[in-house]
Design goal:
The protein is built from nine helices and seven strands. The chain is of the alpha+beta class. It has two domains: 87 residues, Winged helix-like DNA-binding domain superfamily/Winged helix DNA-binding domain (Arc Repressor Mutant, subunit A); 116 residues, no CATH class. The model has no long low-confidence stretch (mean pLDDT 87).
Amino acid sequence: MASAAQGDADAIRAVGALADPIRRRVYRTVSASRDAVGRDHVAEVLDLPRSTAAFHLDRLADAGLLATESRRLTGRSGPGAGRPAKLYRRADDEIAFSIPARLYELGGGVMAEAIGRAVDEGVPVRDALRDAAERAGRRLAEASGDLTEALGDAGLEPRDDGGEGVVLGTCPFHRLARENPGVVCELNHALVCGMADSTGSDPERVMLDPGAGACCIRIVDAPH
């Protein structure tokens, strides 16, 4: 799983690619088409030199905003059919960037999994939510060396709390927690417990503490 830092770098690169006004027009032109389009089409629609259209299309593709394919536009094959044209379409991947880091997509996936299990298997919703969040936490931390590193990789800004343990500098579900603090803080707690379990830390060290840092989680120091 890619770290939050790598994801942010990719998002910044994609957003930066749209800073140029001509490039934004190129992107909108490709997005408005039902089928993949070539350089000639974009150049004609926007009244641009073909080389300019090609430059901006390739920059958008390099940034992950457009996907490319090669296809002969004549419909013929074999000798004399001509070279395949490079075509562009809007990429399927979504680009999201948040400062500070938030994990709303992950939270939505956890909730959907929990609701599905509650409906299909009759598991109490809160139990299903905790199980799903713990599994998500284990996946989130599986490439990290320890819990503090995992929290940092997820963009949660772990901070030493003056000898009282570790608190988080950001809440991954900030807007949701303001509206539904009970359920969302339980989800967050289970998520960090799963991260702790995945990295060999004791999940019992993960405490719900509404007064801890910018989040409801405090990881107390292990007893000596």
